[in-house]
Amino acid sequence: ICNGSLVSRRGQLVPTLRWNAEGLEPIVRKEACDKDKFQNEYKSLKKKIRCQPRETVVELTLNNANVNGSGTELNGLSSSRIIPNVVVVKRCGGLCGGRKTCLSSEQKYKTFYVKTIKDNRVHCLGVQVAEDVKCRCGCDRRESQCTLYQTYDKNNCTCTCKNKTEKLNCLKYGGSNKHWDDKTCSCSCRKSQPCTTGTVWSTEECRCTKEEMLNRIW
């Protein structure tokens, strides 16, 4: 990002830089691109952005907090009736290589004490919120999430369709009315619409057709 050139402007040589990102100002500082300094800053940045537990603000709701005891005290309460209604716990975050995602590999529960207001009475409760202890870079999509028509690509963390020939034919001959749906692994209409009496929607032609005409097709 530190490559530049000199151009003549009103008799003076002015350094210029090209930027791919918006909002960056071209400031030329030779010492900033010094090899040792640059490498040290780059290593420091990699440590900061790596996948690891990070302090995160979490809103307390009935879905993400376990109440010590029966839990009936929180029935009918929203997060606005919990004081405080947010806590700070460590959650996995950061960047991973390729298509991998920063995922939690180990958790523990941390206890917080909050006050709730119900029926004009103040209740003191202990709630447990999950906190990430260890993290790992992995796929957020599992092989079990693939359908019978898909195979699992562990390198790209995706489910890919088996019927590749059908996909190519759809992209080549489908025209403007059809597109390939990677979720259903089928050539589908881009849009559908309700049909009037006596006509039905044809997934082959992507339009409303008369019922007798559709029967002849099938």
From TrEMBL:
GO terms for molecular function: growth factor activity. It comes from the Eukaryota. Gene3D superfamilies: Cystine-knot cytokines. GO terms for cellular component: membrane. Residues 34-144 form the Platelet-derived growth factor (PDGF) family profile domain. SUPFAM superfamilies: Cystine-knot cytokines (SSF57501). This is Balbiani ring protein 3-like. It comes from Agrilus planipennis (Emerald ash borer). The lineage of its organism: Eukaryota, Metazoa, Ecdysozoa, Arthropoda, Hexapoda. The gene is LOC112904285.
